[in-house]
Amino acid sequence: MGKYIVKRVLQFIPVFLGVTLILFALQNIVPGDPIKLIGGDKALSPEVELQLRVRYHLVQTDEDGNAILDENGDPVQTSLVDRYLYYMNGLLHGDLGNSYQRKLPVTEIFAQKYPYTVKLAACAIVLEAIMGIGAGIISAVKRYSFWDILVTLTTSILVAVPAFWLGMLLQLFFGVILKDATGGAISMPISGAGGSSSQYQDWMHYVLPTITLASVSTAYAARIMRSQLLDVMNQDYIRTAKAKGLSNRAIIVKHALKNALIPVVTYIGVDFGGMLSGAILTETVFNWPGIGYEVYRAISMRDWPIVMGGVTLIVVVVMVINLLVDISYAFLDPRIRLGGPSDKA
Amino acid sequence: MADSMFHQPVMGRRAFVGGTLAASSMAFLAACGKKGGDASGSESGSKLNFYINNPVCIDPYNVQEDQGTQVEYQLFDALTSYDAEKGEIVPLACESFESNDDATEFTFKIKKAKFHNGDDVTSKSFKLGWERLVNTKSAVATEYGPSEVSYHLSMVEGYDDLLAGNATELSGVTCPDDETLVVKLASAYADFPFVASHPALAPVPECAESDVKSFYLAPVGNGPFMMDGKWEDGQEINVKKFDDYYGDKAKIDGIHFQVIKDMETAYKEFQAGNLDVCDVPVAQIDAAKKDRGVSKDGYTMGDGERMLLGAEPSTYYLTCNTTAEPFNNADLRRGISLAINREAICKTIFKGTRTPADGIVPPGIDGYKEGAWEFCAYDVDKANEYLDKVAPAGANGDRGISVTLSYNQDGGHKEIMESIIGDLAKVGVTAVSDTPEWSALLEQYQNFNYQFGRLGWIADYPIMDNFLYPLFHSDSLGGDNRSGYSNPEFDAKVDEARTIVDDEERVAKMQEADAMVAADCPVIPIMFYTHAVAGSDRIKHLYVDPQKHADLGTAELA
Known about the structure:
The complex is a heterodimer of chains A (345) and B (558).
Chain A: H1 2-29, H2 34-39, H3 46-55, H4 80-92, H5 106-141, H6 146-160, H7 163-181, H8 204-233, H9 236-243, H10 248-276, H11 280-285, H12 291-300, H13 304-332, H14 341-344
Helix pairs in contact in A: 1-13, 5-6, 5-8, 5-10, 6-8, 7-8, 8-10, 9-10, 10-13, 12-13
Chain B: H1 2-5, H2 13-31, E1 47-52, H3 66-75, E2 80-83, E3 88-91, E4 94-99, E5 105-110, E6 113-114, E7 120-121, H4 123-134, H5 139-144, H6 159-164, E8 173-177, E9 180-184, H7 192-195, H8 207-210, H9 212-217, E10 225-227, E11 236-241, E12 254-259, H10 263-271, E13 277-279, H11 285-292, E14 300-301, E15 307-308, E16 311-320, H12 330-339, H13 342-349, E17 355-356, H14 380-390, E18 401-406, H15 413-426, E19 429-434, H16 438-446, E20 452-458, H17 465-472, H18 488-499, H19 503-520, E21 523-530, E22 533-535, E23 539-543, E24 556-557
Parallel strand pairs in B: 1-12, 18-19, 18-20
Antiparallel strand pairs in B: 2-3, 4-5, 5-9, 6-7, 8-9, 10-11, 11-12, 13-22, 14-23, 15-22, 16-20, 16-21, 17-21, 23-24
């Protein structure tokens, strides 16, 4: 197991270098000058534009920090390789650069916003795991019953309903209609993550975004759980267990569930990685101060330091989550040996 | 079989009780999550809840878009202020101002006032504020990069040297004493007092440079409100009444600027009673007009009039690339302009909340003349006359003219452009859409790699000069003059107008320049913006000026 983990961590390096290098190359291909975009409708003065290019190492500078000009008087661009090396050097020193648009250090922006993304993802994944697995088990165990039909129907609807639309409906019902109907006695916050000015407890702000973010994934998790459990229940060893006189509960808990869980855990793990990468729609609808919307906005505004910082963070998080999911297989099914033949010894 | 083994009877009592519990749990959660007993939304004492999007900056050094300006406007007072009702520029942080005869030197007498930290506001405070805008070696520029709005001071003597790093101060700005600020301009500019009203040119205390990071997130100004905590990025900004304000004290205790990314979400907050002032999405305007009551003047909220639809000093227009075919042909530009049904766009797409443009200069600007641009009229017959000069229509009405219309599809532009394309088809002109992302579109405009495309212009200062000079003067080529228009006679006329100290004469000269550009039609004005702002029942009085600055210092809550 130890060797496996070390091997997987070492594999992070080429994956990380590959992803960041591709993204750097894309910066040169995608149309749109990030510095000219800073001014928006109004053009920047040429002097300020040049100073911004110098500041963000987009043009070459002499020892005094002045831009080097070519024979036509135009600044000499910094090569892609130089910029990549500069970025990697900064990364090794914990510096992801400053946002073109926001001016603030990228690390500062993420340090403020990422905790909100993590907290919302954690809430959503807990809801997804409990509701998804729970509903899947009930649905499978009580096949063709009212509960099975309810779960199947609900999951079908949730899969079909776009998350942002569900979010808006929840906002309208709990934030506006119910508030009006009860004179404000029963209501939910519409947006934000709480704070000093909110009339609600901070945790209340998590309820609707969590339900919205988890909705589709919960439905999928429930469906996977149901089909896997039904599949396992048809296996010979389950019939044997039944013949031995074990109770239904014991059969499910001790024999069926662990085997049926592997695909569900894989799905939830991958989903968690996705959620930790930010949830653009949920963050937009609920005005959630996470990184998803920040990175999305940065892409449209060609704010490359934020995009690069976001991708760096997301790549590392997703790789770590995937590793944890793989490790969890060994615990769920002891037949799985992650280290390969050498670990069997 | 496994299937039948787990088959269970349908819903029983437990199921019913479980379902009921699940349904009621949400209501229970909702009811027990309040901080206090107050459940009436924005009932937060005398604090006003105001919607904004996330600002770019609230420090005057780089304040630019309307969100940051809204906050900064409450924290800082610039030298002057535009009185929209009187239509003139008036003193704000200064007692008085005067110009020399050729509009190259201005003297401002500063009012006695305090900053929020207790420091005195002097003429040096203005000089410091202006220099940190231009000086690329200032502490704030070193930390956050050069200011993108230093151009406001580009006409001040010594600007180029300080920007280039060849000087340490703005030589054109001097302080003979604490109460006097003298500004020398490199060239005549009689409208300079309008420039001095821009929030970016506010005074700053010493701590703006000695403690840059704190100041950036919690600026210390001289305005009617002071920061209450720091700017929580993407979440909120709180300000409270400044008791030592030199002018009339604010009538409300504070403002909670709630930062919301999406206007639809913001409007739901407003509907739920959690916001007092909010922009209204186009789809909700009709309902909001009925529910809130439309303000008579469009700018003042009061009893039964809490929906503002006042005109803004900004114009939505099509820019034509006059440097290349086919739009180097003025008749084509005129014909296309005459063929566009602006009234239909404003009525159908914007439900009458925008007004058809009849020139590049919008109403509310001194010098605006109704029907100033004759080619802004909707006249299909006349359009056909001009287009016949370019290419006569064939038997099927088609002229064989195909033009490319560039625009970004977001922000509702697609519907407007489709309407225009439809109008052009009626006069035999085929317009093909080119829809790059905004970032790519901007690059196309800058490189003159387009035929015609949409743009908007929001004035920094409510004067004709701020439309005519940046959009059409040859000095602005490579900058905001995206049409490539270059007319030496027009340039000379604008330059001459800038030297005229008398307001009426200057405006008359600007109107002459406007008529010249109207005849050439290098851009095609489409409509004038209006704001759509709604207020809650708590608002007793609120004035929002044409530039959408809310005068929260005079706001009153019921």
